[in-house]
Amino acid sequence: MAVPATAVAVARPTGGRKVIGILLVGAAVAVGLGVYGRVHDPTGRSLLTLVFTRSINLKVWFATIAFALALFQLGSALRIYGKIGSGRPPKWLRSAHRLSGTLAFLFVIPVAYHCLWALGFQPHFGLRVLAHGVAGCFFFGALASKVLIVRSSRMPSWALPVMGGSVFAALTIVWLTSALWFFTHVSFPGF
Predict the structure, then answer these.
(1) Is the pTM of this model over 0.90?
(2) d(CA 177, CA 108)
(3) Among the four 26, 72, 92, 122, which has the fewest Cβ within 10 Å?
(4) Around 30, how many Cα atoms within 13 Å sit in the side-chain half-sphere?
(5) Are 178 and 136 in contact (CB under 8 A)?
(6) What is the spatial distance between Cα 26 and Cα 31, in angstroms, rounded to a whole number?
(7) Beta carbons within 8 Å of 138's beta carbon, 6+ residues apart
(8) d(CA 115, CA 51)
(9) What is the pLDDT of residue 162?
(10) Cβ-contact 145, 163 below 8 angstroms
């Protein structure tokens, strides 16, 4: 007996399987960056300084701007999803949330590029540098996963907040082990 076409179910990945696939993509990004940073011969050269005296100064300020934008991301996400405040969030908040995420990404790209290209992944320089390198690689892996989750349909309701929180936590560790350390141990404001 033939099965009618309407009775045939098309196997599609469930939300859980999609999340696993997306996490594997993020893990590949993180591991790939870490491996590149470890096997690449660091150049030790600065890439750009713009208005700053040295590349490190540019990096700590760009990272600080990205961290400030991430704080806005956290607050605006909590407001958009009704976790803080009352009533409906302002109409402009969703656009501002997306714009702040894009800007944060644009600020961390030159910082990460310089870290990997000029410095590489050097865990033998101590725990702070190791934590910074691991958190930086994890950040970009988590960010890749978060972007894929945002763009995917039928995700479990916990997926976006978990990945968003992971991105924020990783960026916080990166900022604490780089910019804040620089400001408290080397120079503030450090232009």
Answers:
(1) no
(2) 15
(3) 92
(4) 22
(5) no
(6) 9
(7) 30, 166, 170
(8) 19
(9) 96
(10) yes
